């Protein structure tokens, strides 16, 4: 990684990286690692494949559950456990020098509304624990630790449908009054990331600067051909498509005129890796919007019907989940991501269906 590679900060010792990253534990030396949390989730799978395809052989993954054998085989080590478990993180640090973190673990928007305090513990407590780990790692091995964090359109809060219609493409710094616990958590973690990057231990006499290089994307709803999400509120789009491919009827929990931005999973993974690799000098912000297309739920249902003529989609809005989606913008302005790190999604709405979703989902369910 020529551009986004390790940065040495002033006054800190250079240790094992003088010889370059190494994967196996050698005597008392710890191995270099890129840490991926939430590795078993939808984004985690794609990200681990993407990192492996880019030649990374130092992937250390954490998830609450055992990973699929195929994903496990791409990692140099996997840990089963909770990111809030200090003992687990301690064990990990005994073995690895963490150089880069992709912190994906989170409770999504729908699930968080049933257990908001748990969501706060995982989404905020987990994130601050990992930011601290990143800062401590940087102090101990002498290189800035890159911390890549996916936030979400849930960070926005459109006060009502009139304001949503009048502001169809929201910029990063507008309408930041999220309605959900998940949105509050994501927005606060964006601020935490910026704080650790710019001001961590601001007044401490032994303060070191440049410990953490925080980079964040706000994902729109994500649609994967390989997996169906759970616990989110943008889930209606992928659920509708997967149900049609399986020959199942689907009752959509939002109105047909509901509109939020979406992108395909491969485009989300590519954008995340591009941001991670970007030259720090090219980045003008810590937090970037991303999007590819913004169809209404009715337009998605129509495309599903074109590709799966037997699809039975009905609209049976759930008042609360509808209110959550109504609080998210109809579209976002991602011009900063395009200008700063070359974000260019491969899939517009047509290509998403014709080139990615329909062929892959068909073969997924044909294989049984
Ligand atoms: C959710 O629905 O909670 C997520 C999101 C939009 O961040 N997919």
Keyphrases for this structure?
Rossmann fold; seven-stranded parallel beta sheet; 368 residues; alpha/beta; 11 strands; two-stranded parallel sheet
Word description of this protein:
The longest helix has 26 residues, at 116-141. Helix 1 links the parallel strand 1 and strand 2. Helix 1 (42-53) packs across helix 9, helix 8 runs parallel beside helix 10 and helix 8 crosses helix 13 (349-366). The protein has a domain at 106-221 and 265-291 and 331-347: Rossmann fold (3-Layer(aba) Sandwich). It has helices at residues 42-53, 69-72, 86-95, 109-112, 116-141, 161-166, 181-198, 236-246, 265-277, 297-307, 319-326, 335-341, 349-366, and strands at residues 31-37, 59-63, 77-80, 96-103, 145-152, 212-219, 221-223, 250-252, 262-264, 287-289, 313-315. The chain contains 13 helices and eleven strands. It is globular. It has a seven-stranded parallel sheet, sandwiched between helices. A two-stranded parallel sheet has the order 7-9. The model is unreliable at 11-25 (pLDDT under 50). It is 40% helix and 15% strand. By secondary structure, it is of the alpha/beta class. Residues 108-109, 152-154, 182, 219, 221, 232-234 line the site of 2-amino-3-ketobutyric acid.
């Amino acid at each position: 990684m020529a551009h986004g590679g390790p940065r040495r900060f002033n006054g800190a010792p250079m240790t094992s990286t003088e010889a370059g990253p190494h994967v196996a534990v050698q005597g008392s030396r710890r191995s270099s690692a890129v840490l991926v949390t939430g590795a078993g989730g939808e984004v985690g799978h794609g990200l681990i494949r993407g990192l492996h395809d880019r030649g990374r052989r130092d992937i250390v993954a954490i998830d609450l559950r055992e990973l699929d054998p195929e994903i496990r085989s791409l990692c140099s080590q996997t840990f089963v456990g909770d990111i809030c478990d200090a003992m687990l993180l301690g064990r990990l640090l005994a073995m690895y020098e963490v150089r880069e973190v992709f912190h994906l673990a989170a409770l999504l928007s729908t699930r968080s509304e049933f257990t908001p305090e748990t969501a706060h513990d995982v989404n905020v407590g987990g994130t601050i624990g990992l930011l601290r780990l990143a800062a401590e790692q940087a102090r101990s091995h002498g290189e800035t630790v890159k911390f890549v964090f996916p936030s979400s359109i849930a960070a926005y809060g459109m006060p009502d449908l009139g304001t949503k219609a009048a502001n169809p493409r929201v910029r990063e710094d507008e309408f930041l009054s999220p309605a959900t616990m998940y949105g509050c958590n994501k927005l606060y973690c964006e601020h935490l990331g910026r704080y650790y990057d710019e001001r961590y231990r601001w007044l401490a006499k032994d303060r070191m600067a440049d410990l953490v290089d925080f980079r964040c994307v706000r994902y729109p709803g994500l649609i994967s051909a390989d997996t169906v999400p759970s616990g989110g509120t943008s889930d209606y789009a992928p659920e509708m498509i997967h149900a049609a491919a399986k020959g199942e009827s689907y009752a959509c929990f939002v109105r047909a005129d509901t509109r939020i931005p979406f992108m395909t999973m491969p485009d989300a993974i590519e954008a995340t890796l591009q941001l991670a690799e970007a030259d720090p000098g090219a980045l003008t912000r810590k937090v970037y919007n991303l999007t590819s297309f913004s169809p209404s739920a009715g337009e998605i249902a129509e495309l599903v019907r074109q590709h799966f003529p037997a699809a039975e989609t009905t609209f049976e809005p759930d008042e609360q989940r509808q209110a959550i989606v109504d609080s998210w913008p109809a579209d976002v302005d991602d011009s900063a991501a395009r200008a700063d790190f070359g974000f260019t999604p491969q899939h517009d709405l047509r290509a998403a269906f014709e080139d990615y979703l329909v062929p892959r989902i068909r073969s997924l369910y044909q294989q049984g």
